[in-house]
Design brief:
The chain has a domain at 2-26 and 77-113 and 176-225: Rossmann fold (3-Layer(aba) Sandwich). It is built from eight helices and seven strands. The longest helix has 27 residues, at 199-225. It has helices spanning 13-24, 31-41, 44-55, 61-73, 88-100, 115-123, 163-187, 199-225; strands at residues 2-7, 27-30, 79-82, 107-112, 125-127, 134-136, 190-194. It has a five-stranded parallel beta sheet with strand order 2-3-1-4-7, with helices on both faces. It has 226 residues and is of the alpha/beta class.
Length: 226
């Protein structure tokens, strides 16, 4: 299983990616997690990434690809890329690397969501500044209003969860990913999933697509063995 899961901020792709990887035994690969691991280990790649992050600049595509490629090499049994690639250039660079190593993306899955629904979901987030627990006033409210269930600390709304910031992030995402989605539609097997539905229904839609692929492959393998 070699999948790419796309989705704008707040679409729930991180949650869905974790559940899919647990279900199918694939490696969950998210660039943010990879960056933190490389920095913590103080590898050469990690030092390069850290220097860009400290300077407040974007990590160059070549370095991002190097970090991702290192993890892909370790995950030959199957992987799911969560939120990467983010640009057309990254997608093309990833395809070139995969071709060199005899691999190919099986399918690209994209979570589609209404902008107002995303804004409503993200602006309802509240975080605990002490233990890091995250709540949602609509979907997962704290037992006591404004207080963390775990440690009792007053909850806060992060600056990047405020409406004007969320809408700006969505505009940036749309500008970057419009050509990326067009590329994957034309070059790969691409499915768009309605992310506005309840989480369990989104998971069911994603697994239905993946299970269809796996069934088809087993059928081809069975015919080849006869």
């Amino acid at each position: 299983m070699r999948l790419i899961l796309l989705g704008c901020p707040g679409a729930g792709k991180g949650t869905q990616a974790k559940m899919l990887c647990e279900r199918y035994g694939a490696a969950h690969i998210a660039t943010g997690d990879l960056f933190r691991a490389e920095i913590a280990a103080q590898t050469e790649l990690g030092k390069k990434v850290e220097s860009y992050l400290k300077a407040g600049t974007l990590v160059p595509d070549a370095i991002v690809i190097d970090v991702v490629a290192k993890r892909l090499e370790e995950s030959r049994e199957g992987w799911l890329l969560d939120g990467f690639p983010r640009t057309l250039e990254q997608a093309q660079a990833l395809d070139r690397w995969l071709e060199k190593t005899g691999q190919r993306v099986n399918r690209v899955l994209s979570l589609r969501m209404d902008e107002n629904a995303i804004v409503e979901r993200i602006t309802a987030r509240r975080s605990c500044p002490n233990c890091g627990e995250v709540y949602n006033l609509r979907a997962k409210p704290p037992r006591v209003e404004g207080k963390c269930d775990k440690c009792g600390t007053a909850l806060v709304q992060r600056s990047d969860d405020q409406e004007h910031t969320v809408r700006k992030r969505l505009m940036v995402y749309e500008d970057l990913t419009r050509p990326l989605v067009a590329y994957y539609r034309s070059e790969h097997i691409f499915n768009e999933i309605d992310g506005n539905k309840p989480m369990q229904q989104v998971t069911a839609a994603l697994t239905a697509v993946i299970d269809e692929d796996r069934t088809a492959k087993l059928g081809v393998r069975g015919r080849a063995e006869r």
